[in-house]
Amino acid sequence: MKKGDIILICVILCLGLAGFFLVRSMNHEDGGTLTVTVDGQVYETYDLDEDQEVSLDVDGWHNHFQIKDGVVSMTEADCPDQYCVKHSAITKVNETIICLPHKMVLEITGGSQERDIDG
Ligand SMILES: [Zn+2]
Q1: CATH class of 33-109
Q2: Sheet containing 71-77: which strands, arranged edge to edge?
Q3: Where are the domains of the chain?
């Protein structure tokens, strides 16, 4: 086997693996739910399939986040540390954006199955 052949096989293997993980991660996001928790209580849940802008005004504070193409990001907050706004967007199950001063957690939870149990 020539050196070039080995490199070619490696490239094909890598592409195959990359494709496999890509498909897996895409399936992972399917039908996900964003759960917003405030002070340990579930405040609201949102469907990740639906693009939306959400403003939350609770107890005198303000947070604004958006859901776009299944990606959740905090776009605005009046908390002092701004940590949640600087946080990178989340897309996968169990990823969270936490706003500590507001005791608020944005967490992507499982798909429709979990919601069915809730209902
Ligand atoms: Zn914050």
Answers
A1: mainly beta
A2: 52-58, 61-68, 71-77
A3: 1-29, 33-109
- Tell me what pLDDT residue 29 has: 45
Residues that place a CB less than 5 A from ion ligand 1: 77, 79, 84, 99
Backbone angles phi, psi at 43, to 5 degrees: -90, -45
The answer to whether residue 20 scores a pLDDT higher than 60 is yes
Rounded Cα distance, 20 and 36, in Å: 31
The structure's pTM equals: 0.68
Look at strands 61-68 and 71-77 and give their pairing.
antiparallel
Q: Which residues, in sequence order, are CB contacts of 36 under 8 Å at separation 6+?
A: 42, 43, 44, 45, 46, 56, 104, 105, 106, 107
CA separation (Å) from 34 to 15, 22, 96, 114?
Answer: 31, 21, 9, 12
How many whole angstroms from 1 Cα to the centroid of ligand 1?
57
Q: Output the CA–CA distances (angstroms, integers) from residue 31 to 36, 47, 64, 71, in the order listed.
A: 16, 7, 22, 12
Instruction: State in Å: Cα 63 to ligand 1 middle.
Output: 7
